[in-house]
Amino acid sequence: MAVRRAAALLHRMLLLAAVAAASVVAGAKVPSMYVFGDSTADVGNNDYLPWSIARADFPHNGVDFPGGKPTGRFSNGLIGVDFIAIAMGANAANSSSEATRNMTMAAAAAYTTGANFASGGSGLLDSTHLANSVLRKKKAFSKCRLRLPLWYTSNLKDQMSTRLGTARVSAWALLSKSIFLVSAGANDAFDFFSQNRSLDSTVIQQFSEAMISTYDSHVKTLYNLGARKFAVINVPLIGCYPYLRSQNPSGECVDALNQLAKSLNDGIRELFSNLSSEMHELLATSFSRLEEVKSACCVGGRFNAERGCIPSSNCCSDRSKYLFWDLVHPTQATYKFAGLVVYDGPAQFVSPISIKQLVEA
């Protein structure tokens, strides 16, 4: 019973992560969507980053995606961003790889319709990648990766200003009408916990304050570029990930990690309540309706969480019944439920407004 309650809580938070990415949204009110997030939002960007070792470009990933081949998404098929984009009448999420590799006029013009900058393994703090070696140590990219997409966004704005010109809508006006989805913090929390197994309330508070300060800085950077509409995603209850529970002798969730996530989420809520009223905040919760909430579908060992999802792994036959795909990522079934609920769910699940309402604001 305790495991199911914890897993249900985890699912609520995973729903927040499920909407961490989207890319192309057409329409006059919201001309584009720009996304910053981690592996729950990455639609294949890491495949174009030669220094990244966090990839999903191999089976069984993508087994339920059209064509049945891996796409770089950390799941068996579509992720939350895809379902949200479809609900908005847009194409499935595009990656920003071309724009990040080639900051040309043509690339800038293409990305006036939005871009997905999410990257598996990314975090807020400079120390995150140094701790988990998600990035190989290269001088230009040894710091927190979120700063790099912010730099790209700034350059894209300059390119769009030149491309669009004064006779048409300015880049500032375009960005001010666009939606900015931000989901980050889970990797930072996990890395911090891995180095500080004994977490008391003081340590948690200090870490949370450092994270919120960094979060505040990044959001204000986007705001100064013209961003006005924000969809903000909570940190999942990572203490209930199958991997963490497989490492716990009791098999239960790791409470200290969940307390850390809750502290971060409280800080995020307070941060956005104090920001300009022009910055729209989106937080969402829901509940699990899936049958298997304890184990992952594609891995092995205890809770199917002691080995990663690789071509030789056993893969469950009915993936629609599973909450988790691998050690830490949801299945397509979870993402679909999450994406549709958060896009236009009832008030008890989405607060203060849904993405659909944010689009129409």
TrEMBL record:
Statement: the UniProt record of this protein carries the keyword Lipid metabolism: yes
Signal peptide: 1-21
Keyword terms: Hydrolase, Lipid degradation, Lipid metabolism, Signal
Keyword Hydrolase among UniProt keywords: yes
Pfam family for this entry, one: Lipase_GDSL
GO biological process terms, semicolon-separated: lipid catabolic process
Gene Ontology molecular-function annotations: hydrolase activity, acting on ester bonds
Organism superkingdom: Eukaryota
Membrane spanning stretches: none
InterPro entries per record: GDSL, GDSL_Est/Lipase, SGNH_hydro_sf, SGNH_plant_lipase-like
Similarity-based family: Belongs to the 'GDSL' lipolytic enzyme family.
Protein name per the record: GDSL esterase/lipase
